[in-house]
Amino acid sequence: MAINLRNLAISEVVVHQVPKRDRSLSADAAITFSDAAIPDLDPTRRNFFGERINASLLERSFEIVPLPGPVTQLPPLIAGMIADATTLVDASKEMARALYNAQNRVNNPGLLTIVTGRLVDEPCVAVLKLQHHEAMQMHPITTDEGRQTFSATILGDLTLTDDNRVFKAALFRATGAGPLDLEGLASDDQRGAGLGADLADFWLLKFLGCGFATAPDRQTREFYDAATAYFDTLDDPEQKIEYRRALTAALLAPATTISAPEFSEQFLRDEHKAGYDQTLAERGVPTTAFDKDIGLIKNHLKRTRIITAHRLTIAGSPEEIEQRVTVEEATADAPARIIIDDDVSKVDG
Amino acid sequence: MSGDGDLRSEYLAVYPTYERLAARLDDLLRGRLDAAGLRIVEVSARAKEPDSFVKKALRKGYAEPMQAIGDKAGVRLILPFARDRARVVQTCEEVLELSDPDDKREVLGSARIGYLGLHYSAQLRPQAVSESEADLAGLTAELQIHTKAESAWATAAHDSLYKAVVDVPDGVARRLYRLAALAEIFDDQIEQFLVELHELPDFAVLDAILPALDRLLLRFTNRAGDRGLSALLVPRLAALYDEPPPRIVAERITPFLDSHEEEISELYSRHEGDARANPLLYQPEGLMLLERLDVDPYRLLRAWPADVDVEPLRRLAVLLGKRLR
Which positions in chain A have a beta carbon within 8 angstroms of at least one beta carbon in chain B? Predict the structure, then answer.
């Protein structure tokens, strides 16, 4: 079952500073470890962490599960932490070492932040890699000459700000008692951004040791089937065609990932969004992003078919249908009309 | 007729029972009126003091004072607004058998002014009498319903005119009766004011929704919101429902809160002591926002007033695991 992010409550937070990989330094020599969780975490700071984690994962996340093996130490460490929160500090140090050792010189340094908490009544663990941000701070001041003005100070050590997304994040909960019995959500601003596979897969595969919960080809087909099922419920034929065309274009676009909410945001009218959400939820399509693989639906995408009430069929490539076919909606006085702007070249039968 | 001593003894024998009847009526009506959203009504009840009982019997010359004096126990309800009178009577009838209505306005007719109020004889309905208080069944009390203005005049008149130790000359008494006219005018003006207030744009919507939301919000927090912001948001939010405003809270918000009680309580308790807690959580209409974010966040975002910062709404959505796009 997909993780629902409502009511994420934060318990403890541990931070380790993980620098850029330097092959001349061991992990223990390079990393600045914390020996304790952040002290006196009050409700304001707990909720700030919770909101930023939620915001990051809601922006664009993927449903993930540990890969068998495991391929990295992370899943067993996280499962152990969920089972026993007192392992937080020691296990998070292991995670920091794993991050340092998995990085190469192109990976940015950052603060590995491990968070324990609860999702409603289940324990959960969040893993974040935060980076420093810069911002300008301005304060009203009075000059020596008594003139009113503003100071301007560059702050270069901001880590988690209200406006910025968390750089990389993952949140896990247990699905059983085993070391790989986990499911989670992960966000990574580099995934799907057209970067090299190595860089894009670093966070998910090489560090977290996870892969997608559902195979991309199956997930892509489920999304396609659910979206088209919703479009078919609409009364306006022109609207159905427009949405199908947008869906085909989105699935054939060069981007390597796709997300149902982003499609809705980009292409659907407001009055159709709630119905679309409901249909996708009923069919179990996640609201997270996923890697696109059109292997199972490519035949559907090559041809668009319009079937009329009297079972006449118009078929063609999506581009030809868009350019040459116009559907005029039925009015009180006249039925709907389909206009094909083309010449008849052949009649069979 | 009995002698004074006999009458006093006879009344003293039943006096404790009427004291219990008065206390029961006080408790019962407070609970009912609160539940009906009429907490603003003031309730007071008493058993008639033995001295007063005997004096009244002598003054009126009753042949059977124990039967004739109907206010051995009395309850007085004082309403801020005359318009609530019918609802108050209806609420009382849920637990009381009311008879012998006596509307003093009708008695006075068109050409006289004086004491105003609505009186009934009242008995507890069988379902309002427990086994342990079975002796209260069938006893009669007097129920008086006044507006605040009527009550103010009645109190002044009772204390100064009727209890005066001398006969008050007409010219002096007239000063008091002229005030009775003012009490009537006061209530009529208030009523006219309320009619015009309800005709103001958005007032009816706010009046139908906000007080109920205020009460519901107390389930989760004691912090109070900003009324100006409520005035801006509530009419916009009300337009997102198919139900008319008076039904929105009962039919949409309360069931939503009931089914999400634990989750919403946890949300509020997590923000207790949070210096940057989302201000919308403490607005009464925040409860509508939680419901709309769950049901139809898109229309909610579209209906958001352009002159109100949308960022707190986006942050509220994040708390519920939703991203407003």
Answer: 4-9, 42-44, 46-48, 51, 54-55, 58-59, 120, 261-262, 264-265, 270-271, 273-274
Same domain flag for A290 and A161? no
The domain boundary residue, chosen from A178, A212, A246: A212
Q: Which residues are B73's β-sheet partners?
A: B47
Kind plus residue range of the DSSP H or E element containing A128: strand A122-130
| B112 Cβ under 8 Å from any chain A Cβ | no
Set of chain B residues whose Cβ sits within 8 Å of the Cβ of A269 = none
Work out whether the CA dihedral A280, A286, A288, A293 comes out positive or negative. Answer: negative
**Candidates 3.40.50.300, 3.30.230.70, 3.30.460.10, 1.25.40.20; CATH matching B4-174:** 3.30.460.10
Q: Are A199 and A280 within one domain? A: no
DSSP states along A16-64: EEE----TTS-HHHH-B--SSPPTT--HHHHHHHHHHHHHHHHHS-EEE
Considering the domain architecture, whether residues A63 and A105 belong to the same structural domain is answered as yes
The minimum CA-CA distance between A59 and chain B, rounded to whole Å, is: 7
Residues A198 and A247 in one domain: no
> Do A245 and A126 sit in the same domain of this protein?
no
| Distances A348 to A314, A339, B154, B176 between C-alpha atoms, Å | 14, 20, 100, 105
Task: Give burial (CB, 10 Å; 0-12/13-18/19+) of B146.
Answer: buried
Q: Which chain B residues are closer than 8 Å to A6 by Cβ? A: 263, 319-322
Last residue of some domain: A212, A241, A276? A212
> How many structural domains is chain A composed of?
2
Using CB atoms, pick whichever of A9, A120, A261 lies closest to residue B325. A261
Residue A33 resides in a domain? yes
Compute the half-sphere exposure of residue B84: CA atoms within 13 Å on the CB side of its CA: 21
Q: Which residue of B has its CA nearest to A61?
A: B323
Q: Which chain B residues have a beta carbon less than 8 Å from that of A274?
A: 295-296, 298-299
Domain that holds residue A290: 216-340
**Paired tokens of B187:** 């209530």
Whether residue A56 is found in the same domain as residue A163: yes
Residue A1 maps to a domain: no
Show the tokens assigned to B92: 């009382």
Q: Does B324 touch chain A (CB under 8 A)?
A: no
Digit-coded pLDDT (tens) for A286-313:
888 888 899 999 888 887 778 888 888 8
On whether both A164 and A231 belong to a single domain, the answer is no
Residues of B in contact with A8 (CB under 8 A): 321
Mutation target among B278, B323, B324 for the A interface, most CBs of A within 10 A: B323
Interface of B with A in 137-156 (CB under 8 A): none
Tens-digit pLDDT string for chain B (325 aa) = 446 678 899 999 999 999 999 999 999 999 999 888 787 779 999 999 999 999 889 888 888 999 999 999 999 999 989 999 999 999 999 999 999 999 998 888 888 888 899 999 999 999 999 889 999 999 999 999 999 999 999 998 887 877 667 788 888 889 889 999 999 999 999 999 988 988 887 898 999 999 999 999 999 999 988 999 999 999 999 999 999 999 999 999 999 999 999 999 999 999 999 999 999 999 999 999 999 999 888 889 989 999 999 999 999 999 998 888 7
Please answer yes or no on whether B323 and A261 come within 8 Å at the CB atom: yes
Whole-model pTM: value is 0.68
B68's tokens: 């004739």
A157 in any annotated domain:
yes
Residue of A nearest to B277 (CA): A44
- Shortest distance between the Cα of B259 and any Cα of chain A, in A, equals 15
In a domain, A291, yes or no: yes
- Over residues A74-87, the pLDDT tens digits come to 999 999 999 999 99
